[in-house]
Specification:
- There is one protein chain.
- By secondary structure, the protein is of the alpha/beta class.
- It folds into two domains: 195 residues, Rossmann fold (3-Layer(aba) Sandwich), CATH 3.40.50; 72 residues, Helicase, Ruva Protein, domain 3.
- 40% of the residues lie in helices and 17% in strands.
- Helix 2 crosses helix 3 and helix 6 runs parallel beside helix 8.
- The termini are far apart.
- The chain binds S-adenosylmethionine.
- The site of S-adenosylmethionine has 22 residues, from strand 1 and helix 3.
């Protein structure tokens, strides 16, 4: 791959998070972690030199890969020669309307990507919050971010993003990946996370109420949840206390100790009580 990049005078751009993978075993392992088979439509974000795109195209029905950097065009057409089921879209994925992307994909699909680190969380949140036909994501991210995606309630890894992901499905780290496997080598190790929208997850009365409850729970980690609720939803101390005791949340608890499903139940109670806030 390095020879191919040199042949087209390609220079790595830090601002696009360009750390490429070349290890074929690792690439195939990611495809297998994702559960890609001959019926799967895959959306890849950040094709790079196309190593993962090619590994995906060997197993998938179809691969649509986004790439922001047009200077990779000749590299990609060489890497993907003969991959009839792979298509590269040279656009900035973070500016895309997900509804339109999903319409073009035409049905259920999986996201598989070695994500550019600078847009990891917004890209994942886009699918978590807006994805309608997305079955899940298998993404390479910085190890620290991977831990946050899968964090247990009450730990320092647990946050608003963890709770949002857990509402849609399950998240687990499938493998740790050393920084030495990337070109150029980044300063931190990475991990592959599989977020599965087809297992786990839970329903809520109002997605907006859930989002705002989660935001409120983690707003001020040093304050009690009761205090945060009072401010966020204009509740008296008594009202906030009643909501929490209805869910058997101990007095003085902090938001980060409530597991995602309990935050969901709390958001339902808030929705009932303050419906006008969410219309
Ligand atoms: N998939 C390749 C691999 O595994 O070797 C490349 C991964 S590299 C970490 C991330 C890629 O995403 C880069 O090629 C970068 O140019 C591209 N990229 C960065 N921002 C993007 C965006 N907003 N939309 C689409 N592609 C983007």
């Amino acid at each position: 791959m390095e020879e191919r990049l040199a042949k087209y005078n390609f220079t790595f751009k830090k601002r696009y998070g360009q750390n490429f993978l070349t290890d074929l075993n690792l690439l195939r392992a990611i495809v297998s972690d994702a559960g890609v088979n001959e019926n799967t439509v895959v959306l890849e974000i950040g094709a790079g030199a196309g190593a993962l795109t090619r590994a995906l195209s060997e197993r998938a029905k179809k691969v649509v890969a986004y790439e922001i950097d047009k200077s990779l065009q000749p590299v990609l057409s060489e890497t993907l020669s003969g991959c009839e089921n792979a298509e590269v879209v040279f656009r900035d994925f973070s500016r895309e309307d997900l509804r339109e992307v999903e319409q073009t994909l035409g049905g259920e699909y999986l996201v598989v990507a070695n994500l550019p680190y600078y847009i990891t969380t917004p890209v994942v949140m886009k699918f978590v919050e807006e994805g309608k036909t997305c079955l899940g994501l298998t993404v390479m991210v910085q190890e620290e971010v991977a831990r946050r995606f899968c964090g247990e309630a009450g730990t320092s890894d647990y946050g608003a993003v963890t709770a949002a992901i857990a509402r849609r499905g399950t998240a687990k780290v499938t493998r740790l990946v050393s920084r030495t496997l990337f070109t150029p080598r980044p300063n931190v190790d990475s991990a592959v996370v599989k977020i599965d929208f087809t297992s786990g997850g839970f329903g809520v009365r109002s997605e907006r109420a859930f989002r705002e409850t989660v935001r409120c729970a983690f707003l001020n980690r040093r304050k009690t949840l009761e205090n945060n609720l009072m401010h966020a939803f204009s509740l008296s101390r008594e009202e906030a206390g009643e909501l929490l005791s209805a869910l058997s949340v101990p007095e003085g608890a902090r938001g980060e100790t409530l597991p995602p499903a309990q935050l969901g139940a709390l958001s339902d109670l808030i929705f009932e009580k303050k419906r006008a806030l969410f219309l």
